[in-house]
Amino acid sequence: PRPGAAAAPPATFPSVRAAVACTVQVLQAAVPVARIGAGGRRRGSGGRFSGWGLPAAATLLLELHGSRRGLAEQQQQTEEIVRLNGGSSPAWAEEPEERGRLWAMRHSAWYAALALRPGCQGYSTDVCVPISRLPDVVVETKRDLQDSGLTGPMVGHVGDGNFHCLLVFDAQDPAEAGRVHAFTQRLGRRALAAGGTCTGEHGVGLGKRALLLEELGQEGLDTLRRIKAALDPHNLMNPGKVL
Q: CATH top-level class for 118-231?
């Protein structure tokens, strides 16, 4: 059944670390969050793209469900955690249409990223790390993007430690394409070093085969291959990949 009440606030923060730290603290406080997502300072472009009009700041989106009384308690608890992390006072959106507009900003992130560099190509990659390590890994990744001279807005579900880098680059520029490839490998290894996985939702495909070996080891990979051979002896399913 649908919850008796729902609310979603957009809150902005002085830094990406503060926004992600707030996420971690909300979850640790056992606030029953229905949906949660975060974005870096370029998320402001997503706000403009979707028509929401949020500033170019680190942004945290949450959605809370529950009874009217329970929701009021959750809102109060969330507001306090946001305030302690330097965030703006959440402007709670309770009407379905208003909440839909708010989440449209998250859903339009890919197109907003492409709009940053018209005519360029987009490449999305992701990793997943333990929630306690998420703030450090996100900050290190942001620094890596800046040092590499890459355009790569970050967005994430973050409630499960998963975040995406939406890389926008000139595919006709071999040097820039090389920097993108090198960055994605560093990102995967950064996640592994933090006790996470080199891929969250996107899968291994072709680009992360070496990283999967580093993550699972040869014995782990051989075990997966034996399972694959037992279920698909003729290699009909998804041929040519790591398994």
A: alpha beta
